[in-house]
Amino acid sequence: MASQDILINWAPQETRVAIVENGAVQELHIERALERGQVGNVYLGRVVRVLPGMQSAFVDVGLERAAFLHVADLLPAVPVARASVTTALAANGGGGNGNGGGNGGGANGQSARAADTPPLPIERQVFEGQTLTVQVIKDAIGTKGARLSTQVSIAGRMLVFLPHDNHIGISQKIGSPELREQLRARVTALAQAGLAEGTPTGGFILRTNAEEATDAELADDIAYLRRAWAAIRERATSQRAGTLLHEDLSLAERVLRDLTNEATQTIRIDSKMQYDALKAFGEVYMPRAAGKLEHYKGERPIFDLFGIEEEIVRALGRRVELKSGGYLIIDQTEALTTIDVNTGGFVGARNFEDTIFKTNLEAAGAIARQLRLRNLGGIIIADFIDMTREEHQQAVLSELKKQLARDRTRTTVSGFTQLGLVEMTRKRTRESLAHMLCEPCPTCAGRGQVKTARSVCYDILREILREARQFAPKEFRVVASASVVEMLLDEESVHLAGLSEFIGRPISLSAEPTMNPEQYDIVLL
Length: 525
Description:
This protein has helices at 85-91, 177-192, 215-238, 251-259, 272-285, 287-290, 302-305, 308-315, 352-374, 390-404, 433-437, 453-468, 482-489, 493-503; strands at 4-11, 14-21, 24-32, 42-51, 56-60, 67-70, 131-138, 147-149, 154-155, 159-162, 168-170, 203-206, 243-246, 264-269, 293-295, 319-321, 327-332, 336-342, 378-383, 411-416, 421-426, 476-480, 507-511, 520-524. By secondary structure, the chain is α+β, with helices and mostly antiparallel strands. The protein folds into 4 domains: 4-36 and 251-309, Nucleotidyltransferase, domain 5 (2-Layer Sandwich), CATH 3.30.420.60; 42-246, CATH 2.40.50.140; 316-437; 453-524, Hypothetical Protein Ychn, Chain: A, CATH 3.40.1260. The N and C termini lie far apart (74 Å).
């Protein structure tokens, strides 16, 4: 595992985190005070609409848009009648119809659902006006509201607590079967200790850093998580719908909990106030991670010193240069992301086939890094350069999977299709870097291109003809950008004069510097 350093740039309005390995930025995380994500937050929501055809419901949790709850994110429940909402709330601590469980740490929270028993349709489990304790599992993206689950999970330092599920799960990164069984037995015993007979223990997922934890550390984490859940239940019985019941940690705190591992050498933060707060938090909950904290005191901004600002600029561009001379072209759309691999100026191999193979091999690592760096999710299509040899295809695919294995976000890779494409899916829980930092261009409206001056000239000529058939002004005045006016006076002057003669009205021109290339006005005088 390559050694890594974590850099934290803190400001009151924004926290930025960069993970650097061997001098190269591998991940960027950004959290803005006014746009903080909701993933992990627990709310008391109110069902505002049930859609049987989509097997989903819209739930008001107090956010800008109603959130989305699918039947797959409900635990099994007895059918709920409208009159039973008060009883259901009292029985489940404000959790509505008793749905709950865990979606954290790799568990889907549905272990209690019998494999051969189909779930009840959503209209038999929830109804409009009902209150539910729900957790955000995916932030609002674009025009889509946040996605919810009643399978609540609470993440701690070493464990993820599943309040409504007795399942004990182990992180897949803990590979030893013997160690997995030992950990499962230890956590089961610790979870039962001190509980009254017959009291449900709740379920747990052991995180990777639980591998070397002592019984005392695990017991402390169990107690902390149960206290957090008890506080959530208590607030759910006394608050109204739309209330935030539990908020996940800030980005700086999640660095210690989620992003720090054995490979982390240092965690440098450039704010003394935040360093002190993070140190105090870490010494209580993550002492090993807290020991790696350093206060950066340099005069130059920390991101400037390590070249992070330039890396962010490059991560917003379409083209990614490869060391060999090849390059990637990355295009992100609402439906999917496409990545095209090109040889560019790479001619270093002995023959063209080897050139293609080496470019694709380098591109595989670059693609995995760009997915992490840009936080690209959803469907991803990689168009590698065509390879004729089967062993070359398999080597490139193997390298891609190897590099993707370092990703914290779940990624699934298919083999090469008949067209030579590699299809991937990467779980999307928050906005991509480009969507977070950028907005559609007001000039091209997000198309990435604008009409030529000649095309706009012809639009203007057609519009004048259309207006002349309806109105009879003394004169038509065209107000447009300088480039369009210049073309109408020069290359298109013959057509402009011909139109003026045809409609029997003079046409004057006026250049407006503030107009973009596609804008124009036709004034009737």
